[in-house]
């Protein structure tokens, strides 16, 4: 692990960025409570933007460091893949990984409800990777105040500029998936993406639109649907698409689970994949290989994303300056048996 | 969390059980190095059998406790389900869960190779749950010496009597699966189980035999095959069964992954599930629902096993006496679409 650290910003630089006095910065750094919450938040943000490391409080020894992976849930292949990649990178870096689910404060039964931030700070965390959860401003502020760096995997919404994130090339993946269908002669290519407020749903929608535009195919707004990334919503949206007067001949469905739901709706309608309708998914979870026909899908490098998030976190823990607050790892189209040439 | 502890055994009791002198027990307890490795191991075993808690070294406060989940790997649904159940129970118990993979000492690249025991002891572990890995005598000894309790999920071989384990009712699950096929009129019911040296492979084989015996159906040794719990070995064993002069009409395949491999072999032979051949799996991983036809299988309560292992560990951490060193949670047969009535 490298020992080099970037030059430390001065209090004056932090004060200027936060728009407060130097003495206010100093108060925040010293944990004084005569600073308003708003002001403290401004200073914390400025400290984070400079990746400010407080003097005199050295990072714990590598052997003692435990980082946290906090996820929306542990079920299914997404968390398993991310955790697997992160654990392997942690082993290499000599840190330990604690896993937990970000529960709402009403989920606890015989234990007092506890926010995940309080829980990990109470134990002592060297850093945290968040997967599929969106930290609040308040949670980020408390992490910053405790000097616990944070990296978000697949941020749900536009992350604030000072929050580091690791994602995947959603736009390019969607562009490639849509182009694959267009190259096979499909012209009525419908889209099922996720909730419009999610950053990656919008990126995939944009990639789809760009591919259609590049092929000179007009976008039909009625062929764009929004599901909620689960199997049932995939089935529901595909049912609606198949009920149209001129149904699509190809579907780009922005998650494997929604695509598997789509398979059900297609079977209900008495249609076959890929003879009657082609389907492309997104994620390349193991289940994409189990279904029949095996699903053509856009592979997200989830293990690599877990590994990259851990390595980014370790660099922050070591006080290194990062070249970019956001990293996107490349998707790849995995062609299997769910896509075929459009019939004439 | 309870504070009650069982009466502490005397040094004389430990010495008698280990067949050594009291002063030798004392030397081991005090970490002296003038005791042979063999003798130390005997004393450690005796200490473990009495769940001996050293005086003057109280367990760390609950808020500081991190337990380890050490697995053979993190990929796939098995680890995800176990981790999910364990994490939920840990939240309730107020402990943290660190996850890691039990690597061989040659797996590390830029980090010195480290046995998982050394790695977790170096950080400080309050207890460890092992999944699908078999601790050596030496590893168990080092954990005992560091007073780190250990619970094994699904032990691969007969665990020593002093090692606590959480498993599932493999015999009863296999009995139920085989009976389900017999009740549907099948008489040539073949078995694909795991390696014969694995405890749970043998338990499943015994359940299969008992169900056939109860139905008055003779066991044909040629219809009993051993795979290695992966998809490819399932396909291979089923190919061999289908190549027999009188092939079976039903298969009980002792893991979902092997059963999915079996589906491939059946399709290659131009046969259909369940019209031509019925299939029952074991595990009920999510992929059992993704395949077509959806797989009838024996559900292992993996989440509950993870939760039970954690709760057992916490009781050991609290110095409680356990009523049984081994707990088996019940399996349930989940009937889906891969089994049908035998044709006349």
What's the quaternary structure here? homodimer
Strand content of chain A: 15-25%
Q: Could you tell me the radius of gyration of chain A in angstroms?
A: 23 Å
Greatest interface and its residue counts? A-B, 39 and 39 residues
Number of domains of chain A: 3
Classification by helices and strands of chain A: alpha/beta
Give the SSE string of chain A.
HHHEHEHEHEEHEHEHEHEHEHEE
Mean pLDDT of chain A: 87
> Rough shape of chain A?
elongated
Number of helices of chain A: 12
CATH class of the largest domain in chain A: Alpha Beta
**Strand elements of chain A, count:** 12
Structure explained in plain terms:
Chain A is of the alpha/beta class and 344 residues long. The first copy, chain A, has 3 domains: 1-58, Orthogonal Bundle (434 Repressor (Amino-terminal Domain)); 60-168 and 302-329, Response regulator (Rossmann fold, 3-Layer(aba) Sandwich); 170-300, Rossmann fold. Helices cover 40% and strands 16% of the residues of chain A. A 6-stranded parallel β-sheet of chain A has the order 2-1-3-4-5-11, with helices on both faces. Chain A has a 6-stranded mixed β-sheet with strand order 7-6-8-9-10-12, sandwiched between helices. In chain A, helix 4 (77-93) links the parallel strand 1 and strand 2. The longest helix of chain A has 17 residues, at 77-93. Chain A is elongated and about 75 Å long. The relative contact order of chain A is 0.14. The model of chain A is unreliable at 1-6, 55-63 and 107-111 (pLDDT under 50). Chain A binds chain B through residues 63-64, 66, 73-77, 79-81, 83-84, 87-88, 91-94, 96-101, 103, 108-111, 119, 122-123, 260, 286-287, 290-292, and chain B through 63-64, 66, 73-77, 79-81, 83-84, 87-88, 91-94, 96-101, 103, 108-111, 119, 122-123, 260, 286-287, 290-292. Chains A, B: GO terms for molecular function: DNA binding.
């Amino acid at each position: 692990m490298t020992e080099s650290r970037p030059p430390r910003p001065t209090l004056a630089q932090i004060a200027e960025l936060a728009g407060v006095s130097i003495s206010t910065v100093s108060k925040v750094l010293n944990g004084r409570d005569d600073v308003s919450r708003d002001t403290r938040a401004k200073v914390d943000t400025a400290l984070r933007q400079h990746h400010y490391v407080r003097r005199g409080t050295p990072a714990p020894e590598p052997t003692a460091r435990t980082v946290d992976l906090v996820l929306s849930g542990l079920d299914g292949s997404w968390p398993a893949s991310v955790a697997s990649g992160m654990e392997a990178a942690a082993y290499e870096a000599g840190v330990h990984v604690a896993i937990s689910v970000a529960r709402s404060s009403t989920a606890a039964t015989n234990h007092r409800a506890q926010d995940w931030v309080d829980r990990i700070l109470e134990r002592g965390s060297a850093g945290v990777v968040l997967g599929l959860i969106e930290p609040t401003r308040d949670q980020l502020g408390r992490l910053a105040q405790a000097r616990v760096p944070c990296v978000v995997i697949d941020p749900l919404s536009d992350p604030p500029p000072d929050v580091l994130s690791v994602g995947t090339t959603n736009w390019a993946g969607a562009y490639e998936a849509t182009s694959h269908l267009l190259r096979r002669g499909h012209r009525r290519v419908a889209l099922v993406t996720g909730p419009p407020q999610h950053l990656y749903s919008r990126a995939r929608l944009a990639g789809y639109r760009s591919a259609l535009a590049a092929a000179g195919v007009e976008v039909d707004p009625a062929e764009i649907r929004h599901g909620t990334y689960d199997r049932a919503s995939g089935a529901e949206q595909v049912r609606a698409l198949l009920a149209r007067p001129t149904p699509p001949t190809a579907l780009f469905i922005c998650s494997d689970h929604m695509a598997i739901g789509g398979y059900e709706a297609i079977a209900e309608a008495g249609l076959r994949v890929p003879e009657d309708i082609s389907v492309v998914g997104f994620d390349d979870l193991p289940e994409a290989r189990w279904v029949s026909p095996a699903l053509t899908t856009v592979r997200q490098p989830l293990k690599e994303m877990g590994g990259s998030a851990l390595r980014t976190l370790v660099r922050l823990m070591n006080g290194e300056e990062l070249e970019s607050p956001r990293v996107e790892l490349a998707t790849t189209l995995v062609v299997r048996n769910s896509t075929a040439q459009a019939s004439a």
